[in-house]
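Narrative summary of target 7.
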Amino acid sequence: MSSTVIHLVRHGEVNNPEKILYGRLPGYHLSERGQKMAQLAADHLAPRDIRAVRTSPLLRAQQTAAPIAAIHGLPVLEDPRLIESGNHFEGQRMGHGDARFNDPRNWRWFLNPFRPSWGESYRDQAARVISAVQSAREEVEGHEAVLVLHQLPIWVTRLSAEGRSLVHDPRRRQCRLCSITSLRFVGPHLAGIDYAEPAAELYPGAVDATGGKRA
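Modeled conformation, tokenized:
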């Protein structure tokens, strides 16, 4: 059976001086360092047999995808299934103002951290990304594709693929800025998962809004 690889690439550092939870808000673009991260990811993937590049509709993901697609002479096509997770506190600074946990008006949003109750469920995120992965695998069977998206959807997809619980400590996600989580398939069957951090040299001083760190 043919071997196919689908690379899930997280976007680079975002220009976010207010340090808010930007979520699905439009217009948030890569910082200068984030652009350098994107180029490092593109250089890492340059030798690969990439035949398709798909991206979240959000600007930061599209900007991360651009140098990858350019190296391989491919268009960047949007896939809405790759969008960031929905979150009730989008646009707020977590722990400040209207997003404070100690504000009784917010308690209903923190009722079930296992779902999570403040936003799109982990199960729904994993399901839509897995659907996008399967579409890409069928499209490029025997070759490779890149999907550029966001930390939480990538991480819960990996947890699901590995048969692990989707409930997790956000501080222990192995999905840093411009990291690459590669799903290796033999035919339609997942054969393994690899992980790389081609932009690691730029992590010191970088702002990672979701607080993820190496597992």
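The first strand starts at residue 3 and ends at 10.
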